[in-house]
Amino acid sequence: MRLRRATWLALPLMFVAPALAACSSSSSSSTTTTTTPATSAAASSPAASSPAASSSSTATAASSGAVKTGLKVFVIPKNLGNSYFTTADSVNSGGALAALQTLGETGSETSGTADTPSSQIPAIQAAISKGANALVISATDPTALCPTLEAAMKRGIAVVTYDSDAPTCRSLFINQATPQALGDSEVDLLASQIGDSGQIAIVSASADDTNQNTWISYMKTELKKYPKMTLVSTVYGNDDTATSTSVTQGLLEQYPNLKGIISPTTVGIAAAAAVLDTAKYRGKVMLTGLGTPDEMKQYVKDGTVKSFELWNPADLGYLAAYAAVELASGKITGASGQTFTAGKLGSFTVGADSTVLLGAPYVFNAANINNFNF
Q1: Residue-by-residue pLDDT tens, the chain, 374 positions
Q2: Are 214 and 201 spatial neighbours (Cβ–Cβ below 8 Å)?
Q3: Cβ density class 60-71: b for 16+ within 10 Å, e for less
Q4: Domain residue spans in the chain?
Q5: Per the CATH hierarchy, to which homologous superfamily does domain 7-177+312-367 belong?
Q6: What is the sign, positive or negative, of the torsion defined by CA atoms of 348, 325, 166, 354?
Q7: Which fold has domain 179-310?
Q8: How far apart are CA 94 and CA 88, in angstroms?
Q9: Phi/psi of residue 107, nearest 5 degrees
Q10: Is 247 helix (H, G, I), strand (E, B) or coil?
Q11: Could you tell me the pTM of the whole model?
């Protein structure tokens, strides 16, 4: 399939390598970044212990039609130390915290260090206890988070998911691209690289990740177009470099005739590329999936990877933050057909199932990858 050129490519190259520096944490849940409103030094601290109902009363709506300012918004990625979410969330990259700063809100990034519900739930609970007005969360599991998120919503806290959904316990989902577009295009990319024939495998994140499983289901459907391609295994690296490296090595040992790998996770594709970056495998076992240009440039340059795809993670976080503030301000409810403006990204419309679509994925290859820095 031919992918539309993503609209964010017209923006200046404002994403720099430091934005991908991993966050560090010595505990299972910690806040790594806090931004205060650029327009008010007296904004409420995110560490306040008042409940959401009372903290909401400190937020201010400047005029009719304006969003509230001084809101406490907690951005909760799947895990800290993941370069994808560092880009999606940080001020330096123009992500979620940058949007919140522009809007005059108090934003904090917090999560656990592992891509698991047990690591993420304490961060959600802590945000609630600190008086959150809104949560922007990438769900580690579609259902395990629901009791905690439902408790937040009962307290009047706006819950927006981004990147990975928890569809029954949120008000709005910010989707990076349609699941079918991602699943179909990754299969099509790999098919073009291996001549539509041969054994392939998938290196996914965790077995419970909503987005990964949805994309993989579409991959399996798209594979029906290629009867000479066989999916021999799906393995899970849990968005951990060491684990992703190990499972990729295991695939190569178990399937010596393997022709290609799809890894729909930025951690997994980088780890798999490092394994394949040897004379034994380079150009013989093809790799595609979802990756960031900075992490993949060396592998594209030396021929280990021909092409891969992604969206702009910073735009995804930025859009999610705007949507959360719109919800917390009462300007939208998540009903289909409602519209709102997300700063530099323009206007968006809420679609079916209370979902907002960022846009189409973009294919990176040797001809264009040096034009991007994130």
Answers
A1: 333 333 333 333 333 333 333 332 333 445 556 776 653 322 332 222 222 333 333 465 443 478 999 999 999 999 999 988 999 999 999 999 999 999 999 999 999 999 999 999 999 999 999 999 999 999 999 999 999 999 999 999 999 999 999 999 999 999 999 999 999 999 999 999 999 999 999 999 999 998 999 999 999 999 999 999 999 999 999 999 999 999 999 999 999 999 999 999 999 999 999 999 999 999 999 999 999 999 999 999 999 999 999 998 999 999 999 999 999 999 999 999 999 999 999 999 999 999 999 988 899 999 999 988 88
A2: no
A3: eeeeeeebbbbb
A4: 7-177+312-367, 179-310
A5: Response regulator (3.40.50.2300)
A6: negative
A7: Rossmann fold (3.40.50)
A8: 8
A9: -115, 145
A10: helix
A11: 0.73
Q: Are strands 134-137 and 158-162 parallel, antiparallel or unpaired?
A: parallel
Length of the chain: 374
Angle between helices 117-129 and 146-154 (to 10 degrees): 10
Task: Indicate the residue type of 369.
Answer: I
d(CA 176, CA 358): 5
Per the listing, tokens 């390598």 go with 17
Paired strand residues for 75: 109, 136
Contact (CB, 8 A) for 84 and 313: yes
User: 229: which strand partners?
Assistant: 198
Sign of the alpha-carbon torsion through 249, 216, 300, 115: negative
Q: Which residue has the tokens 């470099």?
A: 241
Q: Are strands 172-175 and 158-162 parallel, antiparallel or unpaired?
A: parallel
Give the separation between CA 319 and CA 75, rounded to whole angstroms. Answer: 12
Phi, psi of 254, deg, nearest 5? -75, -30
Distances (CA, A) of 144 to 109, 147, 311: 21, 7, 27
Of 94, 92, 37, nearest to 68 by C-alpha is 37
